[in-house]
Amino acid sequence: VTADGRRLPARRAVVADVGAPQLYFELVGRERLPSRFAEDMERFQYDTATVKVDWALSEPMPWKATEASRAGTVHVADSLDALSRYNLDLVTGRIPEEPFLVVGQMTTADPRRSPSGTESLWAYTHVPQPRSKGGPFPGEWDADARDEVVARMEAKLEKVAPGFTRRVVERSVLGPHDMEDLDANLVAGAINGGTAQIYQQLIFRPVPGFARAETPIPRLFLASASAHPGGGVHGGPGSNAARAALSRHRLRRGALIGGIASLAASWAGKD
């Protein structure tokens, strides 16, 4: 049933590309779930939040490492020690002093993305998950906290690509709640559909006992990054859900055909 009241029949299956908590608690309803399953879902944890910036640059990126100028995607970090400090900040609820950046050079990858001689650039970094909308950091996100992250991102890029700042023509910023407002799946900018820590991976994703596309609701399948193998394997959860739905349909159809054949044979034997 859609928001405007329309009913859409689904004879074979429903394949849901939404986060596990939204699917089970908002769309299905806790009262329709097995109690143990619902309790396990209450402990579901999202991954860290995200701040993403898109820049229009008047010239290509002036990377110190010239090889980076040929790459469509660049990962920016000083060292393994810096990555360790970055992750420590995330798990302790602090804005990382030295953000790790994933940078996309869209014009480098596809020259049609911006006028000749320019660059369409984006980057994102992870930040601690907020507790609620509004209010000052730590633990929550507002425009000031978001802008502080952007300033640190740009300082990092200026460090590895001197002259980057003066090439910025325009920027567009998405903070954790901006992302969620655009796409309800991105809860506070969690782009992985749930934490990738081992206690919520493999046989524990999204909850122990349901590490597969099937759900406690017959013919409902979980296809989002909340399902195994998670958001890092692009398309993996959806592929698993599609295969599971098709397999179940074939089994049901095979059982139906077998039952009809058996019934027909028994009637033939009576004759």
Task: Please describe the topology of this protein.
Layout: E1 14-16, H1 20-28, H2 35-42, E2 49-57, E3 73-76, H3 80-91, E4 101-105, H4 106-109, E5 119-127, H5 143-160, E6 168-174, H6 176-182, E7 220-222, H7 236-270
Parallel strand pairs: 1-7
Antiparallel strand pairs: 2-5, 2-6, 3-4, 4-5
Question: Quick summary of this structure?
Answer:
This protein has helices spanning 20-28, 35-42, 80-91, 106-109, 143-160, 176-182, 236-270, and strands at 14-16, 49-57, 73-76, 101-105, 119-127, 168-174, 220-222.
Can you give a write-up of this model?
The chain is built from seven helices and seven strands. The strands form two sheets. The chain has a five-stranded antiparallel β-sheet with strand order 3-4-5-2-6. Strands 1-7 form a two-stranded parallel ribbon. By secondary structure, it is of the alpha+beta class. It has helices at residues 20-28, 35-42, 80-91, 106-109, 143-160, 176-182, 236-270, and strands at 14-16, 49-57, 73-76, 101-105, 119-127, 168-174, 220-222. The chain is elongated and about 55 Å long.
Query: How helix-rich are the residues, as a percent range?
Result: 25-40%
From the alpha carbons, calculate the radius of gyration and give it in angstroms: 24 Å
Q: Which regions contain 5 or more consecutive residues with pLDDT less than 50?
A: 132-138
Q: Tell the overall outline.
A: elongated
- Secondary-structure class: alpha+beta
Strand order of the largest sheet: 3-4-5-2-6
Major sheet characteristics: 5 strands, antiparallel
Order of helices and strands: EHHEEHEHEHEHEH
Question: Count of helical segments?
Answer: 7
Q: Mean pLDDT, as a whole number?
A: 88
- Percent strand equals 5-15%
Query: How many strand units?
Result: 7
Termini separation:
48 Å
